[in-house]
Amino acid sequence: MLDLNDIWLFVHVVRAGSFAAAGRKLSMPPNTISRRLQALEAAMGVRLLQRSTRQLNMTAAGREFFARCAPGLEDIEHASVSLTESQGEPSGSLRVAAPVDFFDNFSIEWMHEFMYLYPKVQLEFVLNDGRADLIAEGIDLAFRGGVLPDSSLVARKLVQSHMALIASPRYLECRGTPQTLADLVGHACLATSQAPQHTVWKLEGPHGPESVRVVPRLCINTAQGQLRAARSGLGIALLPTMLASEDLRSGSLVNILPDYQRDTMGFYAVYVHRRQLPSAVSALIEFFADKLERGIADKGAQACQKILEDEGKGISVPVKAVA
């Protein structure tokens, strides 16, 4: 008969990516874990993992076994958490996947406030622009933008935004304000580094789809970089209004040619379908939904004032981010 503890170890090793990483997380010697998994393979009569000095990969049998076992073990783990949480406030450790520039676009002060509101929750942010495999990597929640592919995951749209043409008042004073889309050809434009020779901006105008080919003076491969460049007066950018809302509200940036815009962009909370979502995950989703509903320009400064005062009395709220 198979030992369920060995199956549990196998799932954790796959999620961690190595015996050493699993050992650190489980406080077990890696050689002990390796020996237990060898016993599991011997009992099953099949190899589950291909081992080498550099990496650890699942065999075809290992991938099938993991796909069948991981959801069941996850249900057991979350059933235990749910029973504990039903007796009190949200608690436990959450592993959250998000883009690398997540805390450039969303204030770290929001996390400060969240962890003050829910002191029994520990957060680990895994920052990576790749699409994380939520099950294989043990991710409880992922924040993703853009258009989501069809999948078995559950996605809740937290906010949507369109892209607009923006520039600083200083730039417009020096170069003039474009009156038509064609006027952009004679202006300094900001774009990604993917097309340094020319960029075609496709927008929806008052008479339907229109496009204009611009020659960017400066190319930056992140939206935050382009936002800062526009704020500094270096040119006109086509960016999500969600990211520029604080600047648009304060007047440090203005929306030019407001009748033209592009793409409705969604920002989503994504998680594995479960019959009962852990209350800590629900709390983090609702927290972000509330923040975004009230506007991304809310940086949480007022809310943090009381938090900082309380921290002076000895309350600690650390946040761990893994790049």
Keywords:
alpha/beta, 11 helices, 323 residues, 10-stranded mixed β-sheet
How would the blueprint of this fold be written?
Elements lengths: L3 H13 L2 H8 L3 H15 L4 E3 L4 E3 L1 H26 L6 E7 L3 H4 L2 H10 L3 E7 L13 E5 L8 E14 L1 H7 L13 E3 L7 E7 L2 E7 L1 E4 L3 H9 L4 E5 H10 L3 E2 L6 E10 L7 H15 L7 H11 L8 E3 L1
Parallel strand pairs: 3-4, 3-5, 4-14, 7-10, 7-11
Antiparallel strand pairs: 1-2, 5-13, 6-11, 6-12, 6-13, 8-9
Tell me what the structure shows:
With 323 residues, this protein is of the alpha/beta class. The chain has helices at 4-16, 19-26, 30-44, 60-85, 102-105, 108-117, 169-175, 223-231, 241-250, 279-293, 301-311, and strands spanning 49-51, 56-58, 92-98, 121-127, 141-145, 154-167, 189-191, 199-205, 208-214, 216-219, 236-240, 254-255, 262-271, 320-322. α1 (4-16) crosses α3, α2 crosses α3 and α6 (108-117) crosses α11 (301-311). It is elongated and about 75 Å long. The two termini are 41 Å apart.
Write a concise synopsis of the structure shown.
The chain is α/β, with parallel strands linked by helices and 323 residues long.
Strand content: 15-25%
Query: How far do the termini sit from each other?
Result: 41 Å
The global form is: elongated
Order of helices and strands: HHHEEHEHHEEEHEEEEHEHEEHHE
* Helix share bin: 25-40%
Structural class: alpha/beta
SS element count, helices: 11
| Major β-sheet profile | 10 strands, mixed
